[in-house]
Q: What sequence folds into this?
């Protein structure tokens, strides 16, 4: 088998999910490449060495520049806080290496555009890790929509709710809580959570053309883990926005880290003239589908048979499921990353670029930036997506 030699930067939560995907790739997908875990990079030598021992990398580095000049690395995988994405991606592209980057792509549109220009000029394979596209039920929703079963779309609504920052005692910054520090994250729930919702929405329903938004910071000051001083909180704790899609439909998006009892509540619903789809990440093995008009016959479904259909997305004919277990058995969160890595490798082998690539992720960044600006200025804004 051909080798795909990986250099991964970042030993945190995402570093673990990506590493697991590389390790399991050839167990489940008949691709021509074998992932080889060459180097892990983290500023902490102790964390890096522990990661080597846990995940089977060949070595640990503390300076990511070493991965750019390494001749035994083909792919740079970026799993560090958002502020570092741009610099690392530019260096990787300049070194002629393939690049995978965690979302959101950058701190802002300008940085994302530089990243797009760099990978396209270098001609290197690239992918943004919007892993929820690879939930089989969400991929099935895309199939249902593309088959015309929804008809003309009218409404899209998305929620992404968590509750882990409600306590005023939660600090900001540092290794664990960089998502609460604007200098590291760029934005709060907009870039961290709604970026997923926006990517999914535009994949399913097309470009978002205009937005108007409201954000809120509920706890105005928090202890900074790095400095030990109380500092103003400048990331958004909650965000709600209205959207107009290019196809004429309208949407609502809501995200917060202050929804008591919600840990990772991620839902969407699309309503059309001929049907609807609904998904809830807390029940990821199901896609709910309402059929109003049969696509083959063009006739309305008989009224005594109408109702929401809860499809258990575990059959071999469902997206990705032929690679796993028998019908009726479920896969989990970690498999979304495995599915994404498999698609990336398949794209390398076929020459058909995988989506979402950096250019696609740039469109999501444009919407995120427009949302933040709209909330700041209190008006509708064009996204440019």
A:
């Amino acid at each position: 088998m051909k080798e795909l030699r990986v250099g991964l930067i970042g030993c945190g939560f995402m570093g673990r999910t990506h590493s697991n995907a590389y390790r399991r790739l050839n167990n489940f997908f008949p691709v021509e490449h074998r992932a080889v875990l060459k180097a892990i990079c983290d500023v902490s030598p102790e964390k890096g060495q522990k990661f080597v021992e846990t995940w089977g990398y060949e070595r640990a580095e503390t300076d990511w520049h070493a991965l750019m000049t390494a001749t035994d690395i083909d792919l740079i995988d970026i799993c560090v806080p958002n502020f570092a994405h741009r610099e690392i991606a530019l260096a990787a592209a300049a070194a002629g290496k393939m690049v995978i980057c965690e979302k959101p792509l950058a701190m802002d549109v300008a940085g994302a555009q530089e990243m797009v220009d760099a990978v396209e000029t270098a001609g290197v394979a690239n992918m943004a890790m919007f892993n929820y596209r690879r939930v089989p039920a969400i991929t099935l929703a895309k199939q249902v929509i593309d088959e015309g079963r929804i008809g003309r779309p009218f409404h899209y609504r998305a929620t992404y709710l968590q509750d882990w920052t409600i306590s005023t005692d939660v600090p900001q910054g540092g290794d664990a809580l960089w998502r609460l520090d604007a200098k590291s994250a760029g934005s709060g729930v907009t870039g961290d959570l709604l970026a997923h919702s926006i990517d999914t929405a535009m994949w399913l329903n097309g470009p978002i053309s205009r937005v108007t938004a409201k954000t809120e910071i509920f706890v105005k000051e928090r202890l900074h883990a790095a400095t030990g001083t109380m500092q103003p909180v400048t990331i958004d704790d909650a965000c709600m926005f209205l959207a107009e899609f290019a196809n004429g439909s309208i949407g609502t998006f809501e995200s917060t880290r202050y929804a008591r009892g919600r840990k990772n509540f991620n839902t969407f619903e699309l309503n059309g003239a001929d049907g609807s789809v609904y998904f809830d990440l807390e029940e990821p093995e199901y896609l709910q589908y309402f059929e109003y008009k049969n696509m083959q016959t063009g006739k309305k479904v008989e009224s005594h048979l109408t109702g929401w259909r809860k499809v258990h997305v575990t059959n071999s004919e469902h997206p990705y499921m032929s690679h796993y277990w028998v019908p009726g058995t479920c896969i989990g969160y970690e498999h979304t990353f495995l599915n994404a890595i498999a698609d990336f490798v398949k794209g390398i082998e076929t020459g058909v670029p995988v989506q979402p690539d950096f250019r696609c992720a740039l469109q999501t960044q444009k919407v995120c930036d427009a949302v933040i600006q709209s909330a700041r200025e209190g008006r509708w804004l064009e996204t440019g997506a």
